[in-house]
Amino acid sequence: MDSIKYFTFTMIGSILGICGILLNRQNILIISMLTESMLIAINLDFLVFSISLDDMMGQIICFISSNSVSCGMYYWISQSLRYY
């Protein structure tokens, strides 16, 4: 498995997310989507490290963090949309 491709892909995704947040500070939904894309890139890093090191801990961390982030983002968006 050539992990350099995956690390390059996740680095580009993280940099695009950071640049998007810095350039767009007015729309909260776009900021939350960019934050979610950065977290997905980090989860992909965990998976690639887990597969390349032959360790299940990265996959477990990825599964737990993706579930908790999804629930947190859903709660945060539902609470922020309630006041509109």
UniProtKB/TrEMBL annotation:
Ranges annotated as spanning the membrane: 6-23, 30-51, 57-77
Molecular function terms, GO-annotated: oxidoreductase activity, acting on NAD(P)H
Keyword Translocase: yes
Entry GO terms, CC: NADH dehydrogenase complex
Keyword Transport recorded: yes
A GO biological process held by the record: ATP synthesis coupled electron transport
Key words, A-Z: Membrane, NAD, Translocase, Transmembrane, Transmembrane helix, Transport
Protein family (similarity comment): Belongs to the complex I subunit 4L family.
Protein name listed in UniProt: NADH dehydrogenase subunit 4L
Originating species: Oryza brachyantha (malo sina)
